[in-house]
Design a protein that fits this description.
The structure holds two protein chains of two kinds. Chain A is built from eight helices and nine strands. Chain A is α/β, with parallel strands linked by helices. Chain A has a nine-stranded mixed sheet, with helices on both faces. The longest helix of chain A is centred in the N-terminal third of the chain and has 18 residues. Chain B has 16 helices and 38 strands. Chain B is an alpha+beta fold. Classes of the chains: A alpha/beta, B alpha+beta.
Amino acid sequence: MRRKEINERSPVRLLEASIHGGLGAGNIGVVVARHGVGKTAFLVGVALDDLMRGRKVLHVSLEESSERVRSFYDEIFSDLAHERELEDVWRVRLELERNRRIHCYLDGTFSIQKLRDAIYMNRDHGDFHPVAIMLDGFPFADTAEQEIDQLREIARELDAELWMTAVSHREDKTDESGIPAPLAGLVDKIDVILQMAHDTKAVHVSLLKDHDNPDVSDLRLALDPTTMLLRRER
Amino acid sequence: MFSDLSKVRNIGISAHIDSGKTTLTERILFYTQRIREIHDVKGKDGVGATMDSMELERERGITIASAATYCQWDEHHINIIDTPGHVDFTIEVERSLRVLDGAVLVLCAVAGVQSQSLTVDRQMRRYKVPRLAFVNKADRSGANPYRVVEELKDKLKLNAVLMQLPIGLEAEHEGVVDLVEMRALYFEGDNGETIREDEIPEHMREAAEEKRNEIIEAASMFNDELLEAALEDNATPEQIHAGVRRGVLDLGLTPVFVGSAYKNKGVQPLLDAVVRYLPDPTEIENVALDLDDDEREFEVNVDPEQPLIALAFKLDEGRFGQLTYLRIYQGTLKKGDTIFNSRMSRDIRVGRLVRMHADEMEDIESAAAGDIVALFGIDCASGDTFTANRRAVAMSSIHVPEPVIHIAIKAKDRKTEGNVAKALARFVKEDPTFRTRVDEESAETIISGMGELHLDVYIERMKREYNAEVETGQPQVAYREAISRRAEFDYTHKKQTGGSGQYGRVAGYIEPFEAGDFEFVNEIRGGVIPTEFIPAVEKGFRAAMDKGKLIGFPVTGLRVCINDGAAHAVDSSDMAFQAAARGAFVETYSKSKPQILEPIMRVAVEGPGEFQGAFVRSVMQRRGVIVGTTESEGFVRVEADVPLSMMFGYSTDLRSSTQGKAEYTMEFAKYAPVPAEVSEELIKKYRNESDS
């Protein structure tokens, strides 16, 4: 299969359709789930969709080393290439690597200012203009509203989508629209909220918030827990 | 053989060149032997003092030249493995780190943590080697062990805990305060061999209490019993030792000792610490690779009853002849055994098995898992794995990367030519990533390796160890050529004028082949090319691949398929078909859109956070692709894929742009096509050179 076909048939198209054309530049999307469900794999899946179209993606992790993040990409890409019988794997991989940049802030060294500095340095000195920023491991539990505003400002200035992950816990309460605790107070600040939860067979991705649409559509998307690839749910 | 593995320690002493590693090793050997002598000749004083300089010299020779020395301390057997001090990342260094179970990091009390300590420590971290630190040269002017401890914390990010306080520094350095036992130790006698215990000097009491609490606090993280005792304020020395030991084994704690090897101070307590805190062979997890199962990793079992697995980690050409040092990971090795070299698939008989002592060697009958021994007269390379039952197992991957850089060398004069040859033969055996050949056209000796520094080290070693000085040419990057699309060929080689004729026709196609260097597919039907000529066709293509048509570098990643052809009953021969294949290759190569590939290195630059911008710029300027940036506790690490051809002189540039505060490592990552403008330039240069 050619990469264009892979893009066309990607389950990410389903997500885009459900949220009315995608997250949109300058907007914030958050995927919320318990530990170990596959949030990072989800981000990587969305990022690979962009990368396969030759677009640039910045992946920021507050939890994993860059080697680890890279191996996430490598594994998910290999599975994807294998499953869809991608042509010219070697060249595509090389191009993906050129268009992807990984930033890791370990041991609590992250700050929004640092992220901003790093992004602008990469843009100004490295000619790196990402269409999407994947921010993995952001501590939503102790986040003030204005921090989300600052992040949105970065996304707007860069004209990029910002995807983030949030951890929920078993004992977390949900508000009336089903939004789990770490995001409850921040709903107005976030454009799209997705939730991941697994049963015995797969990890289901459901839509909790879709921009300003009052009726949230029924998303039929899942993550295969063995290959960590996104799929359509029948 | 050791009956009790808990009394075995395999350690390395690792240090910056000027931190006094040799002196410390010497003293360790001296004290460990001295103890034995006192046991032997009880009551006879002054034996140590009569040791003449000749003997000391002899000992020194062993300390420096020997790859593994063996000594005894407090009923423990300590194998001291020489860890090469150079900064480079040769396979040799990695291998010697692999065979260690623990290490002593020696630092100079004046100079502190230097950039080389950073590298050495990172290597140890990579191989998960538990370590102690010894702050040496406390007698030197400007000595400040406290600052060194801070540097261990800041620069190496080690949880460093001072286990002793120096009693006096610089010229006043007399001894140390043992903070666990709360005793002052003075080193007396001509060689510091007599340890006098005393009360802690009054003026140091308070500081000692304070530092002791720091030890307890740090160690109690690793031992619940100690934690409880500490809360009740009655931690015993045994509990503290247990906590520190666990911390060292978990790589969570680095106890720091102080002294001056030269002034014979603090060495014996360091030996106590080696025995007390560093792991025995059973406490370290080692994995081997199953070569019959795609190098699947499995854990070796430190059990003398299991089948043998041993690693040759060092070859030594000493005055005893060729010695091969082995670390036994599993099973037992006996004199007279037949063992299997898994790389060469060859059986070898163990003729003579020895253990190296400080000043002699001892023939032994057998040795078991956990031990380090040497074999005589075995033909093998460093890094080979030996097993029992012809089992295909390797302790380290047998896949060796192709060299990425060449340099031409020439002996300074006729006299040294022999030495150069001897040195090269030796290096090739030691290091599979180091190659040497004589170029057919220029008749120059070409050495190849994994980087500029890698080759520099060997050129330096030729000079130092073999007294062979060489002149070197410009380093050359090992480019490759590869085709990028399928192309057909149909070529007839015909020469029928005079004498015996030559005739051969081959037809088929070539296409890119990603899984390897070369694949030959024979789809000839109906014997249009007789079977006996097929190998000649393959040979012809292979020969043509040695030199690509773009810039004369080898062609890689090629699949050749022949599906048609013709032969002549009289005029066809092997030669004719080889020539036909070569002709077909030349004809079709330019149609297949060939491109130049260059080696890409994975470069990791590391230094204080403020240099992030400088790092990024430095690799971007070199056509680098940034793969990742990691920030952690004030340090930033930028990883990038950079073409090797752009990395020449990088260390100098980096040093000047960061005032020497940053450092980098690089290793081969992959081959990738060069950009169009670089390709044009290389082709132009090659044409000019071939014309002239």
